Amino acid sequence: MQHSSAKDTQLRESSNQKVHPQPMEEAANQHPEAMEALVSRIFTNISSLKSAYIQLQAAHTPYDPDKIQAADKVVISELKNLSELKHFYREHNPKPVCASPQDSRLAAEIQEQQSLLKTYEVMVKKFQSEIQNKDSDILQLEQQIQEATQKRVKLEKNLKLRGLSGKESETGGAENGNFSLDLSPDLFKSAVEGAYKAIHDFSKPLINMMKAAGWDLDAAANSIETDIIYAKRAHKKYAFESHICQRMFIGFQDESYSMKPENTFCTKDSLFQQYLALKEMDPLDAVCQTPDSIFAKFCQSKYLLVVHQKMELSFFGNLDQRNYVTGGGHPRTAFYQAFLKLAKSIWLLHRLAHSFDPSVKIFQVKRDSEFSEVYMESVVKNFVIEDVDQKPKVGLMVMPGFWIGGSVIQSQVYLTGVKVAE
User: Fold this and answer.
1) Domain assignment present for 174
2) pLDDT tens, 311-347?
3) How is residue 318 annotated by DSSP?
């Protein structure tokens, strides 16, 4: 009976071995060193993956594209290594039909690591998206830097032209395309148009202040040029524009504008550089920064010539502003600043005219001269000749004309002997 019982026990154990595959702990017992090495590699791989992930995070603060790319490659490499270890383990250790508690714990750990891997993969994709966004931001910032550099070079060029910078840069601003203005007839023609507009713009506040002070505008216009027959009463504004123009252009043909010349000798190129420098400046800033410059003296003398003291006394009730200008000052009143805009446009035209070689020549037309379409242009466009047998004549020259090279820039005139077409 004892022998039979021992045999039954042996058969049951043999039967149990045939039904179940080899458990993992038995395989581990059979190959303890290999299994220990595998687990060690898994732990090492996970530690490396965590380290790579930390490096990837660190590369974002401060933002470093090269470090981000390198850390990203390490993360991907460690993920591949872990995947290879997983496949290696599954190939050599088939899943048992009945797992032991030890098997369950290891399976749970593996599942945990797989979940972590999925988290890392999501984070990697997120970081890659952020990298693309950062690259886009970098491109925009580079463009802004380029634009700021161009503005800086332009400002440096302005400072050099005004003599305010300490030293010339080895690479000029013109090479960067910031001063693309070329000395040309078209540029001068544009300056003439700007000067004429400035005369027109300054005449408006001047006439308005005369009205406010109770002036007789008909009498004032007649005192400028007597016995002019105007097609419309509103055309008398051209008398005041002519008054401003005649006084502003006195001395224009002289290179120093009939002012006391500065100590420095002016070349054609330096005159053009002065034009470029002042073109970008506010005229009040220009005269306040360099109150002893020839431009500042030009503004003072022309103001005293254009605005009569009787005008100022009636406008302001005193001569304080006139006395301030006479003493070399530049008041910040709206009226004086309006005049400075006019003075700047005429001065720019003068600097430009004498930048050409030979210099641009100015010409005027006298009253009662016959109208010539070659040398003159009527400020009133829609006029009709009253007597077809008699040519219209010049009543007022509102703006002089210019000879530049072989071309003519017409003078602006107000004609008599015409009427306005309705």
Assistant:
1) no
2) 999 999 999 999 999 999 999 999 999 999 999 999 9
3) S
